[in-house]
């Protein structure tokens, strides 16, 4: 309003009319609470607000009284209140995606200096609704232009998150024309890519529509979880390289949540815990392979070859590391792969999005074996190991980890299986005690390592109990292994470390790491005295990657203990 005196708010940098300072402070406090990856306590909010304690306390009390903030007295934390849920239903009735997304488009374009677009699906094509271009040379996008869904990151992001019925209809009517040598022209390959996108959270296109142009995109979901649009960033492949494109995907995911206020159902935070220094650092640690895997997992030592096999779930690929030469052979399998297991006939058995499959590493040829969840939609297999007696134990999880739909299965070499657990959010780390009478199993979302009594080679599970719990503030348990003394080694996702527990569940030792997301561990080497640690860089903020550039690398140390030789899956003749 003309003639009004204005001043600049310290945090938002917005112009606040005189007399509305208290309101601005309250709104700033709401932003702090809403943007937090983890709920804050009183002292944390006070520090972040920068307000005097009496002023802060009055504002917070008022926000609670009006239902805009909820206080969990038991946990001592603060979250957005129920009034926002009531208001959100009214907002959705008049929701205008273009107007709401405008500020995010501009912010992203300014930060990334690339072309940022807002799109929606128009049958089998993508319609550009809005665009913002960075300074200087940029990829040109015309509002109103339609592009093929199967060849663009935006289109694949929108397809990946459709409900199964809608997706089947779209794929049936879609012609997969080739635009470059990189264009996906097989519906089977496209379906595999869409599954990978659901697991990763964002889509990428590496010169699939135009040579020299890469893009990354995320779906913007509405209150029912279905896509209402997509955010996409396009740039020259010389600037948006494959290594640089993944951090942008993480930033787009955060922007999409801000646009709709829909936090999504991903159960595991994409924000790593702060790095801490510990005095009890173990033996010297070495990054033997700075590979930069998106989601390195499932390390297993192949004693016959004296090599370490492991997977990059989101590449997706199976890798073979030779510690003698330092070389790492990678076999791209074209579909989501989560675990690798040696067999007695020279092949490998994989856990993939299509079940358990045989892999000939030299030819990259896959052959189906069996699928314990063939009729379960929305799930994928996760960690798997060959247990005592030669059977495969494999867990499953929902693609986005949003619901406890996972299970645990024991599979014998005739393809038959038994269900061992259900209702698991993220099935993870598997291991057995040296005498094979105790089985360990992780549910990552709950932060719990379970222990069971079991009969060697038979597979019965009894006396389920909590072996150890990792507080959410310290990270989440991921893959594990057991040494010959019965110690349980667990990778702590977002915790910058590996923990060792004694057989009674007591925390015995911590190995600090220079990366926040270790994923799994195993013992290898000629004497099984080398601890191998895989790691991930997926969804890490750019600032964290700058602090931890070795994220996605393979690490080793010699802690003093030795491992237990891995079993091979006995192929039925």
In quaternary terms, these chains amount to single chain
The percentage helix is 10-25%
Q: In which order are the strands of the major sheet placed?
A: 8-7-6-11-10-9
The number of helical elements comes to 10
Give me the Rg, rounded. Answer: 25 Å
Molecular structure report:
The protein has 573 residues and is an alpha+beta fold. The chain is 21% helix and 36% strand. It has a six-stranded antiparallel β-sheet, with helices on both faces. Strand 29 and strand 30 form a beta hairpin. Helix 5 runs antiparallel to helix 9 and helix 6 crosses helix 8 (187-200). Residues 1-14 and 263-267 have low confidence and may be disordered.
Question: What does this entry show, briefly?
Answer:
21% of the residues lie in helices and 36% in strands. It has 573 residues and is of the alpha+beta class.
Secondary structure topology:
Blueprint: E1 6-8, E2 15-17, H1 21-35, E3 40-41, H2 42-49, H3 53-65, E4 69-72, E5 77-80, H4 82-93, H5 97-112, E6 115-122, E7 125-132, E8 146-148, H6 153-160, H7 164-172, H8 187-200, E9 203-206, E10 213-221, E11 227-236, H9 242-260, E12 286-289, E13 296-302, E14 307-312, E15 317-322, E16 327-332, E17 337-342, E18 348-352, E19 355-360, E20 365-370, E21 379-386, E22 392-398, E23 406-411, E24 417-424, E25 427-432, E26 438-443, E27 448-454, E28 461-469, E29 476-482, E30 488-493, E31 497-501, E32 507-512, E33 518-524, E34 530-535, H10 542-547, E35 554-557
Antiparallel strand pairs: 1-2, 3-5, 4-5, 6-7, 6-11, 7-8, 9-10, 10-11, 12-35, 13-14, 14-15, 15-16, 17-18, 18-19, 19-20, 21-22, 22-23, 23-24, 25-26, 26-27, 27-28, 29-30, 30-31, 31-32, 33-34, 34-35
Helix pairs in contact: 5-9, 6-8
